[in-house]
Amino acid sequence: MRASARVLVVDDDREGGEMIAAFVRQKRHTAVLVQSAEEALHLLSSQAFDLVLTDLQMRAMDGIALCARLAGAQPDVAVIVLTGHGNLESAVRAIRAGAYDFLTKPLDDDVLHLAIERALERRSLVREVRRLREAADGDAPARSLVGTSRALRELTDLIARVASTDATVLVTGESGTGKELVARAIHARSARARGPFVAINCAAVPGPLFESELFGHLRGAFTDARSARGGLFVEADGGTLFLDEIGEVPVEVQSKLLRALQERAVRPVGGNQEVPFNARVITATNRDLEAAVKARRFREDLYYRIAVVNVEVPTLRARGDDVPVLAQHFVTRFAARFGKDVLGLHPAALARMMAYGWPGNVRELENSMERAVALARFDHITVDDLPERVRDYEAEAGAPAGVIDDIVPLAEYEQRYVRRVLSLLGGDRTQAARLLRLDRKALARIVDAPPNRLKAPAEA
Known about the structure:
Distance between the termini: 59 Å
Strand content: 5-15%
CATH topology of the largest domain: Rossmann fold
Number of strands: 14
Number of helices: 19
Number of domains: 3
CATH superfamily of the largest domain: P-loop containing nucleotide triphosphate hydrolases
CATH architecture of the largest domain: 3-Layer(aba) Sandwich
CATH class of the largest domain: Alpha Beta
Shape: elongated
Strand order of the largest sheet: 2-1-3-4-5
Structural class: alpha/beta
């Protein structure tokens, strides 16, 4: 069954409008009645609606003019024009103005119900197509969580469990670990997946504009507020609102944010009425919010409100086994983007990458692979293609387990690395050879050679 929709009925005949609104409510939708196009536009500037049912002939602004205004300002809202004086010319004008359908009065219940359902279905399809296009334009494969490490499997399991609820989530982790990817994964696996995913970096919003961005504003609420705006909470209605760098929210706004989360409603700047919203809120930070609470830079009650579920994203250091998988993923993507025949990474390059600490996490690895593919002269990334900091890295004393320091001969280091990849793949030499871009004979020579007979393979 289709989810309940919000329908705005516009008719200067109150009795007729009430009958239409009652019919809409009978079909399990929410209906709001206004008696002028101007009042409708004012309401639409601060509240989200899925469908508008408007009479054609009204005082001041008629239904066709309202259609034209909505087509330019809110193309997502479907409009059905109703009239007791229907003719072909009026129908053509309405459709050209952006109306989805044109119905004549007296209205047949079955015809009206079918028109409403079709209009809502079309709106849903339009939003889904836009979402898919945005995913394609934004390079959807890059937004997936890639890897096979235990740390990533545990994270993926937690995402699946929390996605099935509507709980507020706080995503924590170092810079570059992929906190927004986690938020998008929660959204994609939730019942809100067909709704919008609206993201904002709180650190990038100037303090004076913060309330307007989140809660919206009315026309004339402040200098340069030439038109009303619904705000991100309303924009994310039916989907997910992601507040990145939540620790940067100004202290003076934190109390209003807390109230919005508690009451599930926002009050636009310059407005007197609260506007309800239906969006899941996910926040993220790379800061220690508990320390910020103790220092009174972050409200304690807001912290507990946003941290109902805490999802900590592991560092790339904790996902060492994922480095070769992620590196190959990025090489394939950037090779396609740049139109270069780069197939993978040479074992010597991978060995250097496995020794490196990756303080910038996955983002640093991605940027390094983009650079390496751009500079690559052969069909495999070599050590010379790597950034200098990776190429010349020297493991420190007491380095984490799995990092081999530089006194080990490179050929032995490569053998240990190749054997490690083979172990991760359950001993499957065919898959290991494919991942490492080696033929099976070369792989066998490296894996099976006694340590005193190891020789570093020549690079491409």
